[in-house]
Amino acid sequence: MLLMEYNFNAIEKKWQQQWNDTKAYQVPNNSSKPKYYVLDMFPYPSGAGLHVGHPLGYIASDIFSRYKRLKGYNVLHPMGYDAFGLPAEQYALEHGVHPAVSTEQNINNFRAQLDKIGFCYDWDREVNTSKPEYYKWTQKIFLDLYNSYFCNTQQKARPIAELIAKYETSGSKHFTAAEWQAFSVAEKEEWLMKRRLAFSAYGEVNWCEALGTVLANDEVVNGVSERGGHPVIKKKMRQWYLRITAYADRLLEGLNRVDFSDSMKEMQRNWIGRSEGAEIDFAIKGSDQKLKVYTTRPDTIFGVDFMVIAPELELVNQIKSSEQAEAVDNYVAYVKSRSDRERQAEVKQITGCFTGGYAINPFNGVEIPIYIAEYVLAGYGTGAIMAVPCGDERDFKFAQHFNIPITNIIGKHFNGQEANPTKDAVLENSGFLTGLLMKDAIAVANDKLEELGIGKRKVNYKMRDAGFSRQRYWGEPFPILWNDGVPTAMPETALPLNLPHVEKYGPGPEGEGPLANIAEWVNTPEGKRETSTMPGYAGSSWYFLRYMDPHNEAEFCNRAVSDYWNQVDLYVGGTEHAVGHLLYSRMWTKVLYDLGYIGFDEPFKKLLNQGMIQGVSQVAYIRKFSKDDINPLGRSNTVIIPGLPPFSLEEPELQLYSAEFVTEDNREYYAEYKIPIDVVNVNMQNQTRNKMDVEIAVSKYPARLNCVFITSEAFFYKGLWWSWNEEKTEVINVSSPDFFTSSVVEKMSKSKFNTVNPDDLVHKFGADTFRMYEMFLGPVEVSKPWDTKGIEGVHRFLKKLWRLYFDEVKGLQVTQDEPTADELKVLHKTIKKVEEDIERFSFNTVVSALMVCVNELNDLKCRKAAILEPLAILLAPYAPHMAAELYSALGHTDSVLDATFPVFNPAHVLESTKEYPVSVNGKLRTTLMLPADADQAAAEAATLANEVVQKWLEGKTPKKFIFVKGRMINVVM
RNA sequence: GCCCAGAUGGCGGAAUUGGUAGACGCGCUAGACUCAAAAUCUGGUUCUCGCAAGGGAGUGCAGGUUCGAUUCCUGUUCUGGGCACCA
Fold first, then answer.
1. Which tens digit of pLDDT belongs to each residue from A80-93?
2. Residue numbers in A 630-649, CB below 7 Å of strand B
3. CA dist., res. A484 & res. A481, Å (int)
4. Integer distance in angstroms from CA A732 to C1' B13?
5. A738 CA to B30 C1', in Å?
6. CA A782 – C1' B69 distance (Å)?
7. Distance CA A262, CA A787 (A)
8. Model pLDDT for residues A601-657, shown as the tens digit of each residue
9. What structural domains does chain A harbor?
């Protein structure tokens, strides 16, 4: 009976088993077919499991992979796990479960969920970054980074041995060869550290004294630790970094050679933040020190009214006057508690502090007061800016706030009310620059600065070197040993350096990671091990290479294999990785290319961004009562229920108000409360409202039994509805009075009770329906809320499609008759649409096209194999199980996976006539049937003879007649 | 605050190059089948005036360019993502 009706459970089980048994998704590393590499962004196997938002991109890439296979490609489509990371360690801290254990559980769960959806991954290529077989190579690539430097002449990475050889023979601009040879090991290492691509230096971290640990930005909320609410300050610690800034220009250049969206490229360009400007040295009054500022506008140097330097600069202590010392120290302490983002985001409230020091303008000798302010960050430029209030809005506000007199150098272009950042004004009041157009003056000022030796042109990048160490346990250990503060690299032959097992996940002494607690691991005869571990992006910066050659024990990826698979042709993932992962992996690829390990320097040829599927949270309200308040029904806050002790409505978590009570006016008196329950949409006066069944809600979540659900009709408490009777509150006999919720669209998250689990949907409707529905929701790149209701429409469509082939009673009904012209037209129209839309990643409209096709074939009562067989193949990327079943029912013993995609024949869709829309003055008035080859003259004659057109012309002669062949007709009068 | 994106019926969305706005699906609604229900099938469904024929308005908001704008330009509002230790 399997063949009669659409039994998706049996069909999907059968084909998944068969594809598994025949290794149908195994991909060889060589083939006569052209190659195609489709990759999903590396997932972190979170403990929360998959919700319907996760597989969106996986389904899109799966469809594309299957499509490419039908088109005759050898398609690499792997999956694996970015398994190191903070959440597993956090879970270990709280529950004592070792991260390796919880990670494995999560992976098993993740895999089981993925398998149900029917993906075509080649699971023989699965990788896991937390396995020594994998992180051995992450460590090896780290050593390559450590043992390389960026050669400015060749603009590429070279082995550091070449640099050492150069130092030994010819020295550098800082030292002679003889001096180099006389340096101690530590001194040599200090110089080399300035060049290594992976290097160690001091940097600031979020330090929480109370917890004795370094915190991730995620763990800091409003300046205090998320756990416990302890103060968090900035603290300098020795850290590892990757010298990504050396690659800034090449990362910019590479963007021209990849197919990413313009906005994605724009975000990366802005992140890199290349700017051309000048560094200028200002003398400091009464000091030998210089104040070095970076500016992109040296033309405004005569308009400098004050300087602002980053509060954390060492210089602050040297220039602060004794009168200002206390204020400066207080301000510096305040800034230490602020995150970089807070420091830049705060614009309304201007903060800062005068240091008491003055810089001297080199051109006119004017004394310029030096301030510190949080909006200047030490990491960008020189950490000091020259402020020109007439030309910069923030400087202007700062000057106003501190009553600093403003110098006007642009005459009438500055009105004294707001700054004018123009470059097109003629400079006034500007010494040797007076009379020049500002944009021309930039070069003149730069020339002068360089001539006088007080400044030089400088290209700057906003991007900073990437912090590469974490004071954590669950990450790759560094293959580095320390001796008296000097690091040495372990030999590659000693890799992997295994992550030791620990029993405790708490921090080590001095904020070091948990590894510092294992003395026997840290102390070795060769030196002390580095105790921090690598960050999450270490393993994910090169994983796309390991998939090509996942079991290679001799190298991370064989060169011949990476030459075959080459770049990832299609990379699918979210925009949230725009500047993190994508930049890091692009940098690593460039380094590996420079060092000759691979033959391409951009990892991802085409990037497809997937939108986020948001959850719809249901909200009830909690009344925020004040002391003398009465509840919204005009009664006191106490509800009396006969036979029960009176309860007060002043225990907010217990009373949930129906949304009908909340209006715009009184909204401030209510707080939102997320409800874990599905709702029913009801139409009321042309408005959709969400009605919740309180009894079901309570039965599903027994903890809610003690809640009071308040509606205008009655309230629900302890499983009963009670009336709002003036005299006495009594049980009423009603079928659920309406309890309304309002809905909020937001990120899917367990805490908001708005997650939807794909397993339930696959169980109820089948994987094929689920896959199609995810695509049908909308464009894959766009974020949209999930609505489970619509899935039934897609399920109905698949059943309808099934019934084209099968009669419930009579079974397979397909005939071998010759198809009619109409039937061929429907098929070929669909082939064209499906192919074009998949090629442009418009996956949602493909589903519509298939629906239209099935509707039309149904109208034509088409049961012909010549039509239905190609249709099954068109369906295969989206609903592979059903397609396989139909294909085999049509008599095929070969696999639908390797069928040939139907070829579009334009002869079948030719039309002899075209219905033209006819507008008068741009407004559509009628349509007109014309021969497809009608020319302008014929069209004009037919149009003017048309009754409706004549009516609108009112006897006048049209001024203009517009005819766009095959498109439209417009008569202008 | 800065960077990026988005806004179209009751809902998700379609309109690919500036050319018939609302395909397809959900929901709603009327009907067929049924003792009834489910399932299935058929019709209707942007708003608005009108018995109808036929008008008018309409793609967040305000302008502009054009014979013609959801599409291009300027400004603006709101929503989402990112902002360097979540991944």
1. 999 999 889 988 88
2. none
3. 10
4. 44
5. 27
6. 23
7. 30
8. 999 999 999 988 888 777 777 766 554 454 444 445 555 555 555 555 555 445 777
9. 35-139+538-613 (3.40.50.620), 150-245+466-534 (no CATH), 275-461 (3.90.740.10), 614-746 (no CATH), 758-900 (1.10.730.10), 911-972 (3.10.20.590)
